[in-house]
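FAQ: What does the model actually see?

It sees only this:
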Amino acid sequence: MAQVTVSLTDVPPATGPAEVGQRLRESELDICWLRESAILAYLIRLAYHDVSPASAWIVGAGTMIYAGIVHWRVLRGTGIRTTAGVATAGDSLVGFFLTCSTGGLVSPFFPLMYFTALTAAFRFGLRMTLAVTVFNVLLAILLHVLVPTQGIEPMAIALYYLGFAAILGATIAGWARRQIALTERQAGALTAAHDEARNLLHKLIRAQEDERQSIAGELHDRMGGRLFTLQQGIDRCCEHVTDDGPLTEELHRLGEEARRCSQDVRRLMNELRPTVLDDLGLFEALQEYGANLASTVPFDVRIDIDPRLHERHSPQDAMLFRLVQEAVLNVRKHAGARHVEIRVTLEGRHLTIVVADDGHGFDPGQVPHGHLGLLTMRERAEALGGEFAVYTAPGRGTRIIARVPA
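And it is asked to produce this:
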């Protein structure tokens, strides 16, 4: 069964501390896998050497234990910034020990020192990058002392690439941060625009309801009173006509027509603005609506309303009532259903409306042009800060669900 869902959660929220922490955690997990891959490569290299000193195996075991502890702390997700800070210095030491046991500055593992500068740039920015670079330079000098190389060239190359890695990392991280800041500003502007549009929509719907109420009041005050006076006048005329001639028949016909007209006006007033909705609230209004439907629609109606709504009176009620009305109207026009269920429930802090039928259903991707029922219901749900979904497929009926804050 196909689904069309419209939700206000599609709009990205402003970035908060929790989201920043989640981003840092995800980046730390990526760094964990890179760190463990480098240590695993070091252990494989030791295994393929005919003779590997015990100190090299001790370095491999120690660095793997370190990597495991960091990975475990990152998976826990607590103190992620502290873990990242410790790992920034720890990775430089890992690179130092792996390099020291495999040839010093000419070791294939020395590029791990460049990696630590890059990760520092992405984790914490320029200041930490400079600190890590200075630390790496000191470690490189110490490597040159502990594992001497011929000439000064390896030392110069190492220092050059350490500085280059730091500058490259800081530059790329700066670009990334500017792009993130721009994205967050755009997301904030989009959220603000969406909120403004929702507020305007809410005001528009409220103005529409006020206009409906005003027209219903005008019909009651003007047409209702005049029709009542007309009917009373016709009844009095009937009382004074003694014969059963054509005049009496015409007066009776006019009296019956006046009564039908009065009923039509009352029904129109009730459709424009049910008085029970203002007087007794959503629960009674929907109960009365369901009872009236039973005699006017060609399908069975089952209505189930949460009893906790009995005491509810809210400015939202009119829009919720209209949403149910629009859903039932769509069923009457298009569904060809035999059974319709209307269910209104309280679920925690949300109120859920479900209107389900066993009619023809339809393809949500091919709604004919000019059919605005779904759009109207979506707008009402959005105006209340809620979600709106339609589950349907050809030949399988339709289920409409609106979920709004209660």
